[in-house]
Amino acid sequence: MTQPVFFIAEAGVNHNGNLDLALQLVDVAAEAGADAVKFQTFKADKLATAQAAKAGYQVANTGEAGSQLEMLRRLELSAADHERLLAHCRQRGIAFMSTAFDEDSLALLAPLGMPAIKIPSGDISCGPLLLQAARLRQKLIVSTGMSTLSDIEQALGVIAFGLTTDAEPRGRADFDAAYCSAAGRQALREHVTLLHCVTQYPAPPAAVNLRAMDTMAAAFDLPVGYSDHTLGIEVSIAAVARGACVIEKHFTLDRQLPGPDHAASLEPAELRQLVQSIRNIEQALGSPLKQPAEQEMANRPIARRSIVATRPIRKGETLSADMLTSKRPGTGISPLEIWSLPGRVANRDYEADEAIEP
User: Fold this and answer.
1) What is the band of 250 on the pLDDT scale with cuts at 50, 70, 90?
2) Among 92, 98, 176, 201, whose CB has the most other CB atoms within 10 angstroms?
3) What is the pTM of this model?
4) What's the pLDDT at 71?
5) What domains can be seen in the chain, in order of their start residue?
6) 3-state SS, one letter per residue, for the chain
């Protein structure tokens, strides 16, 4: 059996900076059956300058232009908020996760025992943050939105270096060497999962390219999951069917709430439906062996056919093709043998529709 899909319910910043909303999001994720609920941890002043503009989707979803900085300041969670959320997650039996967007935030999250450190798509080129995360020697989930294979390879070089040495890097040559080394490749296999992702909220299905997961898995020999920003649940389900080992999906209490990510998020009932659908797909994927399922064995003789007489046949008659046909049930000679019976002498009398004996 393969490992179950690790499902991350992405609360992100859909708490709107309100701890009570964040705690409610934990409840929704736990009740949906998610493995983890994930938030975002940052200090706005360390993440964006006053000149950093909002993305187009952020302008559309918030209904205002303005700077990223002001928007992000309203969405910060304090260290005390993190402690409350962590305690509530433990109480509800769901893993706490958060994505760190700066060095101080990563240091805050590092000792919290999260299932993995999440590297967001926008920071796949942020060498210092990648190196700091790698040197925690914890599991890493690296999201790859907006990236080429070359971008991913360069990030993995930094991570491989951080996983295998505490030396100060002198430049890209050190990262390339770590990536190409046997120790570096082994460390990546032990620590890193990649997430295919399209950084648009919502992402149109035509932009998703789920087949890229196959390309990534082949190129890097690492497990690959999918961070889903499409509307609805079907693309996440399809990703699981294609082999995604991790699914991350945004959710909210209400898509009508103000904020940059609510409009592209699932509501509670949809989140429950997605988790259940993924668990069903996991079971349906089963084994690569093609063989009868235990549950269908009783139906085989009912659905298959046996060779029967088309008319009464007397003992001693020579069988001919016109005397034989195939009908249900399949408890006698297989119709695959119907060409081998003509010319054989009947060993007893048969009535019409009676199964021919071996």
Assistant:
1) very high
2) 98
3) 0.90
4) 84
5) 6-285 (3.20.20.70), 292-358 (3.90.1210.10)
6) CCCCCEEEEEEECCCCCCHHHHHHHHHHHHHHCCCEEEEEECCHHHHCCCCCECCHHHHHHHCCCCEHHHHHHCCCCCHHHHHHHHHHHHHHCCEEEEEECCHHHHHHHHHHCCCCEEECHHHCCCHHHHHHHHCCCCCEEEECCCCCHHHHHHHHHHHHHHHHCCCCCCCHHHHHHHHHCHHHHHHHHHHEEEEEECCCCCCCHHHCCCCHHHHHHHHHCCCEEEEECCCCCHHHHHHHHCCCCEEEEEECCCCCCCCCCHHHCECHHHHHHHHHHHHHHHHHHCCCCCCCCHHHHHHHHHHCCEEEECCCECCCCECCHHHEEEECCCCCCCHHHCCCCCCCECCCCECCCCECCC
